[in-house]
User: Fold this.
Amino acid sequence: MPVILITGASSGIGAALARLYAREGASLVLTGRDRTRLKAVAQECRERGADIRTRIIDVRERTEIGAWIRELDSATPLDLVIVNAAVNGGHPSGGLETEETAFETADINLGGALNVMLPCVTLMSARGRGQIALISSLAAYAPLPDAPAYSGAKAALLAHGLALRQKLKPLGVRLSVVTPGYVKTPMGGVIKGWRPLEMSAEQAAGRIIEGLERDRDVIAFPAILAALARGALLVPERIRSAGLSGFRFRNRPRR
Ligand SMILES: NC(=O)c1ccc[n+]([C@@H]2O[C@H](COP(=O)([O-])OP(=O)(O)OC[C@H]3O[C@@H](n4cnc5c(N)ncnc54)[C@H](OP(=O)(O)O)[C@@H]3O)[C@@H](O)[C@H]2O)c1
Assistant:
């Protein structure tokens, strides 16, 4: 029975991944901060026949997360870990992101991701088996002026993940970086602006699962937006940034 850990499973893409993986014989470990929403997702997954464990935990709690992952893995070795929890940062009325928001975003989206990923890297490489998915964003390729800390954290995660992938491959551990475009979730839904080729959380989760089954290095979607974001890195910055002006947005604070 594969054991899958998903962080940020109480909402959006994480919850959609949990629902898609939930079936007879699957063992899922779901984390989040909101008890009520996490419980509701867990219940839906149990009704689909999966064995479900939940944990309310803030990914910024490095010591607690590391100890818990080691304990979890020693009881039931983790086959797949999806490092998904994040916040969007930005400014509610499109102004300059505050220091407080920028630090919080970096702490959760980068620090929190590493707090989950690194203990798994250690455990999986020691036993020569396992798979890790880092949920980054197309903002890693196309930094968004309205979400600088978010874009920076996602770019760091992309670089860290791709570098590690090379080291982990000979050790029997697969690592993929996922760079979604616009996805209709509580996070994506607060973006006030043009959201080209927006997908549902279920569609995004389906693409992620398919990419992980194929052990893709980068799982980027939708294809056209991904090609534009990646290709734009080759043009002069003043042209690239002018082209981004249609993507200005405002973030309402998260619930
Ligand atoms: N939606 C998009 O358009 C889009 C595009 C590209 C990439 N992504 C990426 O996809 C992933 C999922 O995003 P989403 O759209 O599904 O967002 P979402 O609906 O807002 O869900 C975010 C999840 O992260 C959890 N989380 C946030 N801060 C946390 C913390 N400090 N500790 C533990 N858990 C925390 C939330 O838990 P609680 O709610 O329980 O606090 C929630 O379960 C993120 O990495 C995001 O950057 C999203």
